[in-house]
Structures are given as structure tokens and as C-alpha cells.
Amino acid sequence: MMDSGDSHLFTRVTWFLFAVMVILAMVPVSEATVHHHKWKLSYQNWSPDCMQTTIISINGQYPGPTIRAREGDTLVVELENQMPTENVVIHWHGIRQIGTPWSDGTASMSQCAILAGETYIYRYVVDRPGTYFYHGHYGLQRSAGLYGSLIVDSAKTEPFVYDGELSIILDDWWHTSTYQQAVGLSSSPFVWVGEPQSLLIEGRGKYNCSADSSKTCNATSSQCSPYILSVKPGKTYRLRIASVASLSALNFLIQGHKMTVVQADGHYVEPVEVENLDVYSGESYSVLIKADQDPTNNYWAAVNVRGRKPNTTTGLAILNYIPNLSTKLPTSPPPPSPLWNDYAYSKSLAKKFVALTGHEEPPPMKPTRQLILLNTQNKINGFVKWAINNISLVPPPTPYLAAMKYKIHGAYDTTPPLDAYNPRDYNITIPPTNPNAVEGNGVYVFELNSVVDVILQNANTLNANNSEIHPWHLHGHDFWILGYGEGAFDPQKDPKKYNLVNPPLRNTVALFPYGWTALRFKADNPGVWAFHCHLEAHFFMGMGVMFAEGIERVGRLPPSAMGCGLAINKMLHY
């Protein structure tokens, strides 16, 4: 029994707690939502550019269903692999997977591939607003059409306004199956598929059926009719743009309309008005467009190849001014993009994007560690490969995440890869004098919360007078782009040129021919993460490295991520 003093104290505490609860109830709280998606992956006959082929679809759709959520929400995707002949994983491009590295969707890296007939559940939080997408990350499945949009809305007021929203994904497309392409890439002599037959906007393009005698090309198919972007005269629209291109650097433009770039890879940038926009594979943008042209007309939205000598016709969509019929074609030809090899233009455009003042975190002033990664085309036992510091990545059968978390002996090469190459020993302007490289699967291991600089160094390919654009994508992190440069990187002189004031934060960046690109990131996300060229063939041929940090902080892995390689024994003892 309480005495009177205890009773009064109890009463005061009770009323205090009640008052706190009332106050909290009056504060508006934005509750996170859990979104459930049930997907069935299967083959479908489809005609993205009027030529019928076999694609990978999700619930019978191509492109796949658009996922939309709010920052802080949780996504649960139950994925059933109904393809009888191949395995699959899906990567959620741009989502950092904080606390859920096993949901990153990288075969042999974060999880085992999902076998035919199996179901895998991805569950993760979308922690940052922006324009993202998902795609297959096994073999060349992105090239087979396995992709779709992932849009995360902001919980706060954004630093720009608009009246409506549109979204597109850009892609390049081949008529040769991904299986034939993979065989060619893995053959000696090397068999190259060549340039794409078509460019697609939101999964639609137009191949010239008269140039093909096949009965599988149907120019009247609704699946290859131009994608329609409908707008009301006088209104301003946010257009979300992403590229899943397998090979091509792309340039997007809208006839008669300027675009104002306001966001890149989910981060705000100082507004930049452009007439056309380079979009490299793996990149995403938000641009504002105003429907301020003659409302009696419709206008072309166009995409062209940059960075490679184009052998592919322009990809087209229609900017449809309501109430015009969407089938009303523009009266003038599509607008041209800059010349394919005008790299000075591309570099100038890339350098215009800087972080929006007051909205993005500035970079740390100094790194803890620096990597200089030389990008080269090489040969291994007569097979053409891509390599980084002379090592061509071949992921092991046991996923890195399980192998490192549970210290599984013999699962991968524990010898650390080289932090840098010696520029005095390598001339980046000519084909390699010794083209031979080696295969490997080592990991760069960083101290948790350390600051890492990565300098990507480009070089000549096996062919004289040729160096290619490589869009590099980092999983699990965003990075600051500190600068671009020409020729071989100078570790003493070039860091003095870095932008440490307002560099943009991105997850994908272009490495230009014969030049270098400098990045800085915090190794603050426990897990094992891929860093690789986002061109399908290049990554397939070994153009990537693996990063790891804070493995001891990674939580218990789901058994479904461990059913392969040497991880099976560990899973059986769960």
C-alpha cells in the first residue's frame, strides 16, 4: 500500500506522462509505410522496336512495374523466378541498402542467384528521395529487358516547383539474343555484337522493318508505337530520366524546349539550363520543362548515341500538347544532338553540375586512403577481357558477403589488390605493350568510417587510337565527384585542382577517354559492395572491383542469401 507521499508522486507522474502523450499526439508524424510487391519473372515475346524477340518480363510487363514510395518507407518484393532456364537477381540501383546489404541484388557478391522455380524476398528501406531504377544483375539480363523505375518521393518540400510529373527510362537494343552476345564475348576469337539496332524511350523504339526480310518485324505493333509524354500548355513538368543502356552513352533532348537540371542521382544540384543532356548508363536526372511552345503542335523527344561512332537511328517519343491527338506527328524533323565525338562538350557539361547550396553534405577535406584504378582492355589466354590494375574480376561461387561475414576459408582470394599502378610503367596513350592480365577476386577492405579517394584512370584499348567512355557505378554509397582531368593522373599536382567546395554527390560517373575522374566517399555502410563499369559487356568481361567495410557490424544473413558455394555448409548449421 502506498502512503500519501507516494500517492501524490504517482499522481504527478501520471499526469506528466499523460500531458506528454497529449503533446506528442498533437505533433504531426509521418508514418513509414510498408509496400508489398509480388513479382513473377518470365519470358515473353515482345516487339520493343517492332522486331519480335524474347525478353524478360515482370508480371507480363515490359518495362517492369514502376515502384513508388516515400523516403523512409520499406519495400518488400517477393520475386518468383519462373524462367525455366536461368537464374536471376535484381539490383535496386541507387538504393544504399543501409543495414540490409544482402538485398543489394548482386549475384556472388551480396547473395546467391535465385534459381529457376525459386522465390526470394527483398526487403529494404528507401532512405533517400530521388529517381532510381532496378535491373537484372546476372549475366546480361539488363540487356534482355529486365528493368523498371523506382521513384522515391521526398518527405520534405523540395527546392523547386512544378505542376506535373513524367518519367522515362532510356535504353539501347539489339536483335541478337543476350545468350548469343554472351557467347561472343566469351569466345576466342572475340565476337562483338556491334552497335545497337535501336534506341528505346520507356521500352519503345522504331526499327526500319523494310530493312529486314524477317516476318517477325511488324511496324504497326502497338508495342513499338512512340511513347507519349502528355503536357498541358503553359504548365511546368518534372521529367525524370534514367539510362539503363548496355553500351551507349546517350544524349536526350526535346524539340524546341530547354531543360533545367535540378537533381542528379537523387541529389540536388544548382539549376543548370541545357538544350540537351548527356545521360550515361546508370545515371538519373530530374529536369524541369515548360510547355511554352505553340500549343497546336506536338514535339519530338529524341535520344542519340554519343561517345561512339553512331550506327543507330534516333530514338523518338512524342511530347504531346493536350488536347492535340497523341498520334499527331511533329511537322519538322527531330533535333540533332552534338557530334558523337565532341568530348570537350561532354566534359564541359559534366563540370556544370555542382551541389545545391545548403542541401547537400560537403566532402571531408582529406582522405584516409587513395586508390588509383587503371582501366585497361587486355587478354587472358587469348580471350579479350577488361581489367583494373591488370586484374580482371571473376566473382567466386560463394557470395563475398557470406564468405567475409562468416570467415569461410578458401571462398575468395584474401590477397589485397594493389592500391595503385605505376604511371611511369604504363603509357595510357597507346595499346598495352604487354596485353596479358590475370583473373582475380580479391577485395579492397576499408576501415569503417574511413574516407576513400578513388581515381579512375582511362587508357587506350587493344586497338590503336581508341579509348572508350566508362560510366562507373558504386553500390551501397554515394560519392563526391572532385574533378576530371586529361592524361595520366599526377598524385602531387592534380589533387590541388579538386572541387572541395560544392562537388556533386552521385552514385554513377563518367570516365572520359584518355583522362581521369577523381571521387571521394565515406566507407560508412557495413557490407561488401561492387564498384564497376555499368556497361553490360564490360562488367561481364571483368571491369570491376569489390569494396568492403564494417563486416563485423553486418547482421545475421538470411539463409536464402547463402544457399550456394561454400556458404551452404554454414547455412546448414543455422
Layout: helices, strands, pairs:
Elements: H1 4-26, E1 34-46, E2 53-58, E3 67-70, E4 74-81, E5 90-93, E6 119-125, E7 130-136, E8 147-153, E9 164-173, H2 178-185, E10 198-201, E11 227-231, E12 236-243, E13 249-254, E14 259-264, E15 267-274, E16 277-279, E17 284-290, E18 299-306, E19 315-321, H3 343-351, E20 369-380, E21 383-388, E22 391-393, H4 400-405, E23 438-440, E24 444-446, E25 450-457, E26 470-474, E27 479-486, E28 505-506, E29 508-511, E30 515-523, E31 527-533, H5 536-540, E32 544-549, H6 567-572
The major sheet is characterized as: 6 strands, mixed
Percentage beta strand? 35-45%
- Residues in helices, as a percent range: under 10%
Structural class: mainly beta
Total number of beta strands:
32
- Overall pLDDT level: 94
Main sheet strand line-up: 10-9-12-17-14-15
Unreliably modeled segments: 1-29
Give the termini distance in whole angstroms: 50 Å
Quaternary organisation of the protein chains: single chain
- The helix tally amounts to 6
Global outline: globular
Q: What radius of gyration results from the CA coordinates?
A: 25 Å
